[in-house]
Structure of Methyltransferase-like protein 9:
Amino acid sequence: MAGADEAHVVRCAYGCQDTTCNITVGDEAVSRAVRSYRPHGSLARVLYDKRKADEWLAAYDKRKWYRVDKSKIREDLLDLWVPLGTGPDADQPDKAAEIFLVRSAERSDSLPLQAWHSLARSALSWFISRTSINGLLGRGSMHVFSSEQFQKLMDASGFTGPWHSLVDLGAGDGATTAHVAHLFEKVYATDISPPMRWALAKRKFTVLDVERWHQEAGPYNVILCLNLLDRCDRPNTLLRLLRTSLAPGGRLVIALVLPFSPYVEVGERNNHKPSEYLPVRGSGLEIQIVSLIDRVFAPVGLRCLVWSKLPYLCEGDLGQSYYFLDDVIFVLEAQPINTRSCEFAINDGVSLRRNF
Ligand SMILES: C[S@@+](CC[C@H](N)C(=O)[O-])C[C@H]1O[C@@H](n2cnc3c(N)ncnc32)[C@H](O)[C@@H]1O
């Protein structure tokens, strides 16, 4: 029987030399062994969990990233939809997204790098925000869209230039700005986090003050406001400034993670809640898309020209190779404030037209 027992004791899947360790994948003994394993148990558990999470990621249907439930969207808004995936059904990740995922997986698999990040994060979290820690460590990079996807959106919105100035507000480390910077003569950026501002300056973008960006330069041909409205303290004030800071014929590109969930790292209320709330209604992604277009953008004189959906990708860590959220992208233009009209969608799709 000893032989049979030995056959069942598979050596640790992570290559540790401890003969009492019998971690393998896929049976009940595994989770028991992972839970009780000591002294290397914590690391083994982390690696086991990461492997499981990565298996889940590998099996995930990535076509969902580029799709919405069209039955829940009004027809006039469906006309503005621009698919951003690749492949026959335009619902597969493009090359830039694939490159980001591969690089992210490589970095997340580097134990020394992740151990250093984890140590530094716990030490620094007493003093500075998570975003600033990421900026200092050069980690947590994000991916929104590629140059080709951006150009597709611009073309679909009828933007023909001039390609003189771009400002990316709340640009983070400028990774997404870098994808489109070559299209413009002048590239400006802001971020509230000092390490992110250093990262932006290192990329040779002109870094503007977070309060005075609209006075220091501009009006701008294109403004990027990517994943900022749910992270800044005063999103309504920002939206009004965005509208007035667009050059004639300019485009505002807003990306927002949905379902909407505001979380403010640096705000007046000190409880991570924003000082101003966006009137986003409904709980599902599609309902919120309609609500944003009708109730948030239209009332401040921003008309949606095209919109789409893609994954907001974030570099991974010891937890998993990468993270993703549903990101909805809107390309908007400024409307004369007095003549704008707004449609308030009721959740079931019935709408009431209202002129201001
Ligand atoms: C979720 S990240 C988005 C980064 C990048 N735009 C992207 O889409 O990957 C939000 C960023 O906005 C910055 N931020 C928050 N409030 C801000 C404000 N009022 N002005 C400028 N940046 C701000 C944060 O420091 C953070 O880097």
